[in-house]
Write a structure and sequence with these properties.
A hairpin with a 6-residue loop joins strand 5 and strand 6. Strands 7-1-4-3-2-6-5-8 form an 8-stranded mixed β-sheet, with no helix packed on it. It has 2 domains: 35 residues; 105 residues, no CATH class. The protein is α/β, with parallel strands linked by helices. It contains 2 helices and 8 strands, in the order αββββββββα.
Length: 149
């Protein structure tokens, strides 16, 4: 009987470790089963390099949402983007949204630079002041070639 008890205990330990791993992976990736309440804002970027659905949206370095949808606008050849911001985070309607880098080797994220307006974006509004991703390769080529453009 002790042999079966040992097998059951080892199996229970393996199952507990698997459940703990799934919970940890969900927390690290930002996935939440219940889903927090969000509202959408739209923006159009010239370059969305390094950003995809699920990328963090940050305000003052704090995650306030994520990229919900990215599509190519066939008429303007720009990346139309929808970001989902946490409810309760009010963004002034003269704010800018830019693609920032976490560092030289880090990934990109979407950053909101708040304005000073007393009025706020409503769900579904479009942020007009955008700045796309800056390509590190193009910057290095400009530096090496001595171009001042």
């Amino acid at each position: 009987m002790s042999e079966h008890t040992t097998e059951v205990l080892v199996g229970a330990g393996v199952l507990a470790a698997a459940i703990a791993f799934v919970v940890y992976a969900g927390q690290v990736s930002g996935f939440s089963g219940g889903g927090s309440a969000t509202y959408p804002l739209e923006a159009s970027f010239r370059s969305l390099e390094g950003v995809s659905v699920g990328t963090d949206v940050r305000l003052a370095g704090v995650k306030v949402g994520s990229v919900a949808d990215v599509t190519l606008n066939a008429e303007t050849y720009r990346a139309d983007t929808t970001v989902a911001l946490n409810t309760g985070i009010e963004i002034p309607d003269d704010s800018a949204i830019i693609i920032s880098s976490e560092g030289l080797l880090g990934g990109n994220f979407v950053e909101i630079v708040p304005g000073g307006s007393p009025f706020f974006f409503e769900p579904g509004d479009r942020i007009e002041d955008t700045q796309g991703a800056v390509s590190l390769v193009s910057l290095l080529l400009k530096f090496v070639s001595g171009s001042s453009e």
